[in-house]
Design brief:
With 107 residues, the chain is α/β, with parallel strands linked by helices. It has one domain: Glutaredoxin. Helices cover 38% and strands 27% of the residues. It has four helices and five strands; from the N terminus they run E-H-E-H-E-H-E-E-H. Strand 4 and strand 5 form a beta hairpin.
């Protein structure tokens, strides 16, 4: 995990992390190959949007409560929140350029 991405380990930490500002959460699992493929893309985006978007990761195997709360049934699953409210959701692997354009539209 890079210094630009926060690993979120419980619901309380999640609530504090997403409460204010623009936040992108990556719901993933270590056993998910598309999730592993997206990891370097997520890292790159965290650098490109540093100071504009906070980046966090939630392992659904370790945080079933959060996965259920957000009805995560497919991974990788990315949720963009603004001040704690869901603004956009992206499901599945995608190219860096596509993902970057979608995030710019969210800002």
């Amino acid at each position: 995990m890079s210094q630009n991405v926060t690993e979120i380990v419980n619901a309380k930490e999640f609530d504090l992390f997403v409460k204010k500002g623009n936040v992108l959460i990556d719901f993933y699992a270590d056993w998910c190959m598309p999730c592993l493929t997206m990891s370097p893309v997520f890292e790159e985006l965290s650098k490109k949007f540093k100071g504009k978007i906070k980046f966090g990761k939630v392992d659904i195997s370790e945080n079933r409560e959060l996965a259920q709360k957000f009805k995560i049934s497919s991974i990788p699953n990315f949720i963009f929140l603004k001040d704690g409210k869901i603004k956009e959701q992206f499901i599945g692997a995608r190219y860096l350029e596509d993902f970057e354009a979608k995030l710019k539209n969210c800002l």
